[in-house]
């Protein structure tokens, strides 16, 4: 007992404050960190699981051009009469094309996807993923991950604050882990799990050692998650990584309305199809495409995004065309390889957060790191509980 008191007194005020923060911040945020980490762990493989369970997402690859966007829209519209298409995607040569229909009715969002053969524009499947009244497992998981199944305006800030606290816990945990005596034997204790020790010791090592090994990747998951929680954090991260520049707002070129009607197009080929043919000629090996098929405002430009890697989103090229003249436009950051470091980091944010930036190995890594993050509140609570029980036993023994 005296040795314990002596050790506590030998700690500096800063170290005692660090330990106190780690304890109480961990206890107050533990349940939220557990939920967010577990749901994130599950969501990592959501696309792979969907691909395995939903065969209509795939077609037989053919040595012929894709059907143009207008044909896909005609097919999709036949199954969604009166609805407005909000997104159109082409996948890889073996992937189905899809047109999405998103709408808000009475404050509730509805989202339906029509899958088609990209070569023939033939109908494959109609699937309502939001607003159908049916249970969607991965929608349930992502709602828990982002907002703890609360209304998003309430849950998202709570998740954001808990994630911010988690980053503080990682730093304070590193301070607690760092041995004063850096001799080989002492360092080994902080780097090795003693599996043949008592349960309490193994639990302590699982919290201490595993937490240390996962520190860097856990920080990456936390930081990339905070980008979605707080605008001020996203702004600050961009400011730091760009060397003092402000994060640019999302912007896109505008079509020249004064030239509406002045340029005559062949009625058999729509401006969207013409833009599509132009972009495909520049990107014959693209691994996927996304576009907004129906423009809302008269000065909107046609936008097409060409993804360079199968399953990843960060490495993409964006093409803009005037809707009236088909004049091409360029904007800042419209080509990943040409963008500055801060812009590339912003494009990478989602792919780093879910691990797809490194392909399957990255997903596996993200899965295990998320699992470790979920375990830390549990093992940490058990460490605190064991110490509390031990302290009570000493008080009973004391005369």
From TrEMBL:
UniProtKB keywords: Membrane, Transmembrane, Transmembrane helix
Short name of any one Pfam family annotated for the protein: PepSY_TM
Regions that span the bilayer: 21-45, 158-179, 210-230, 364-385
Domain of life, per lineage: Bacteria
Cross-referenced InterPro entries: PepSY-ass_TM
The name this protein goes by in its record: PepSY-associated TM helix domain-containing protein
Gene source species: Imperialibacter roseus
